[in-house]
Specification:
Layout lengths: L1 E3 L2 E5 L3 H14 L18 E7 L5 E10 L14 E2 L10 E9 L6 H18 L3 E9 L7 H10 L9 E2 L4 E2 L1 H4 L6 H7 L2 H8 L3 E2 L3 E4 L4 E9 L5 H10 L1
Parallel strand pairs: 6-7
Antiparallel strand pairs: 1-2, 2-3, 3-4, 4-6, 5-8, 7-12, 9-11, 10-12, 11-12
Helix pairs in contact: 2-7, 3-5
Length: 242
Amino acid sequence: MLKKAKYAARLAQNLQDVQSAQTLRCLAFNLRSENGLDQDRFDDICAHMLIEEVATGALVCCFRLLHLNGGSDIEKSYSAQFYELSALQSFDGKLVEMGRFCIHPQNQDPDILRVAWGALTQFVDAQKVDFLFGCTSFRGTDTKAYLDAFAMLRDKHLAPKRWLPRVKAPNVFKFAAGLRRQPDVRLAMRHMPPLLRSYLLMGGWVSDHAVVDKHMNTLHVFTGVEVGQIPPARKRLLRALS
C-alpha cells in the first residue's frame, strides 16, 4: 500500500495478520492476557493497518479502522462505549474511527509515525472520508502529570458545541469545567501524546472530559477531525507523506 524508507504499510489480509497486530497491541499497551493477544469484538468489523520493517518484516506499528456510512451509525463505534455521541448522529458524511494505535516499545523511530500518517491519508482519500475520530490516550490514569496539557486542550481545542460529546463513562476527569490553571505551553507539549499532537495540527478537537480507563491503564479524550477543515498546508504535508 505504501513504502517509505525502511518501512511499508499495508492492510491485514488474513487472521494471522490480525493476530500479529493483537500481539503487538498487548505488548505496547502492557496488557495481561492469557493468550498474549489484545482482542475485542470490534476487531472483526475493522480494517487493520500494519506498518512493517522492510528488511525483516517485523511489525513495528498498527492501528485499526472502522468505516461508518454516516453519523447515524456512530453508536456502532468503539468510542460510543465511553462517550455520549448523539450530537454526531446528524453528521452528514462518511466517518472512520481510528483505534488501538500503537508503536513497538523498542522501536521509536519517528519515520514510523510518518509512514502511519501517510497510510492513513491514503485510506481517507480513497474512501472519501469526511470525519476521522477516535479515543486518544494519555498513558496511566493519574491526571497530575497532564494538567498543563489538559488546560491547553480546554483553552484551544474543545469540540464545537454542536458536536460536543457528553459524559457517559462512570469515571471521568472533567478538565474543561474543573481545571482552573493556566497552561505552561512547554510542559503541555511535553506531555501531549504524539498522536494527539498530530490530530491537533490537523485542526482536530477533543471532548471536554477525559475517560479514566482502568482496563487499558489510560486517560483518553474523544478526538475528532473534520477532514474538510484541515488547513491546506497540513493537507499538502500529509499527502506528501502518502
